[in-house]
Design goal:
- The protein is of the alpha/beta class.
- The chain has one domain (3-200): 3-Layer(aba) Sandwich (Rossmann fold).
- It has eight helices and ten strands.
- It has helices spanning 11-17, 65-72, 87-92, 95-101, 111-114, 123-131, 154-166, 187-200, and strands spanning 3-7, 29-30, 35-44, 47-52, 59-63, 78-82, 104-109, 135-140, 145-150, 174-179.
- The strands form two sheets. A six-stranded mixed beta sheet has the order 1-6-7-10-8-9.
- Strand 3 and strand 4 (47-52) form a beta hairpin.
- The protein is globular, with a radius of gyration of 17 Å.
- The relative contact order is 0.13.
């Protein structure tokens, strides 16, 4: 399986994996459009975030996942995104890639990162549904499967999002796994695989 991971990597992480032949690293910023903007990287609590900068020397190019894939000729079977609030932008910039390759998706769903960037935490699900990603598995922030849900079920998606506000931080964000309806993988098969794995332990 050929997988693609879009995430924040520290300089140490880049140097750690740079010599591995099965990895190809692209040190770039991904978004939903091609542009240049003034940014700086703020490191905090073992992670890093992009912040807008007033310094003209901090100009960086933003590219889309579509343009990156077009130039690399890489066909991803699985795409993992963990970008602390920029996940939706990365997904919107991957529209043609998702239409063409129907890649399995795994991304972070965290309203505490999304809202400060002006994102509606529910907006990506209608986008995914229109692209053919109709069923989602929701994981809590401990990696446990919580539920299976349709990506057009806005009512229950909103309830899940609201729960992160009242759960006193026991569950503060979710991860989402979804497969294209026309791909060779599906939620049912994934759940069956997990069950077989647990029974074999």
């Amino acid at each position: 399986m050929r997988s693609l991971s879009a995430q924040s990597l520290s300089e140490q992480g880049l140097s750690t994996h740079a010599d591995l032949p099965q990895y190809k690293l692209y040190e770039c910023f991904l978004g939903d459009s091609e542009n240049e903007t003034n940014l700086y990287i703020e490191k905090q609590d073992g992670s890093s975030k992009l912040k807008h900068s007033n310094n003209a020397n901090n100009t960086h190019k933003i590219c889309t996942l579509d343009s990156l894939m077009q130039n690399s000729h890489f066909i991803p079977h699985f795409i993992k995104i963990d970008t602390d609030g920029f996940d939706f932008k990365v997904l919107r910039g991957a529209k043609e890639t998702l239409k063409a390759h129907k890649s399995a998706l795994f991304f972070e769903w965290d309203q505490f990162h999304l809202r400060p960037l002006g994102e509606d935490p529910l907006s990506i699900f209608s986008y995914l549904y229109e692209l053919g990603y109709k069923e989602c598995l929701i994981f809590d922030n401990f990696g446990r499967i919580l539920c299976q849900i349709q990506s057009n079920d806005r009512t229950n998606l909103a309830l899940l999002m609201d729960y992160t506000l009242i759960s006193k931080q026991h569950i503060c964000y979710y991860d989402v796994l979804t497969f294209h309806s026309l791909s060779g993988l599906c939620v049912k098969e994934y759940l069956a695989f997990i069950q077989r794995s647990e029974n074999a332990m």
